[in-house]
Amino acid sequence: MPATTAPTLFDYARFVEHLKHRIDGARLSAARAVNRELVALYWDIGQAIHEQQAQRGWGDAVVDRLARDLKTFFPGTAGFSAASLWRMRQFHEIYTAPEFLAQLVRENERDAKRPRASKALAVTGDRQLAQAVRDMVEAVPWGHHVNLLSKLDDPGQRLFYLKATARFGWSRNVLLNQIKAQAYERSLAEGKAHNFALALPEHLAEQAEEALKSSYNLEFLGIRREIRERELEDHLIDRLRDFILELGYGFCFVGRQYRLTLGRKEYFIDLLFYHRFLKALVAIELKIGAFEPEFAGKMDFYLNLLNEKERAPDDAPSIGIILCAEKDNLEVEFALKSKSNPIGVAEYHLQGRLPTEMKGKLPSPRQLQEVVRASYPGLASRDRSSR
pTM for the full model? Predict the structure, then answer.
């Protein structure tokens, strides 16, 4: 029986690192494969609906009927509602529209004229152009396409963000923030074809995670929160903290990722301030995605903890502010309806659910919008040059 020896710390660390890279690579490959198949399926469904309606003269009612039938054939499978089928039809129709194809051809011709453009896409006919479009859209998760279709109208905008997402593996929240920050418009103003080089660093884990979030939840891949989104969130939180303190509205900084405990569990608030004039703790949670109803419940929970554990006897009740990339006012209204604590929800600005006595004591909507806009990493170079 051969003698056994314990591995050295260096050898074992290198061994683990090798396996980690192998697992990350396998996860990314699996996620990309799932995503491509899903997007290809949705493209084919959208194309089929469009063609059948055009050839057979079927009306809109066929989509509702198809949704019911697919639900019967595939019980428990999400993604085939009437609204989803209409989105698939729009997906195929928009990316095969003459305006979008013309935009793609113009950009390919422009890129081909640049130095070292040997890898520029060569399109010599309709078939090659159609395949080029399909290859490009299949490289981007479905959830991103939903954002691109619903938030943008201009073919140049769609193509710009489509290429950036495919190249850098942007998550949906990073894409949403790029759109809100008008990255496309700024690239035109600066005379640049793109600002892709300003994007946050790539990371395998995030790309795989995002591909899966937009398709089906394959739990065996075991990937958690996006790393790049965390970097963006951390950057915005730091900038928001500094900005609020600089304004001099009576805010005193208490802590970042402020720790609260309940029993054996611990919780962390993004930013906690004390307002000298209101004599109240102010908790701020920043979400780089769209508002979700559970955000209100979590903030209400934090405020209950603050009032119980941190609030001084003569302090006013604690106040919560949820800052998010976008919101639906009706959804916000229902989410806050049963909450007893004062909570404001902002789409990167303050919503009028806060107490009236806070007016004039907090940053204005324009000021909060500007700090988020100026903080976005992809726009850092322009901000520096404009000073």
Answer: 0.58
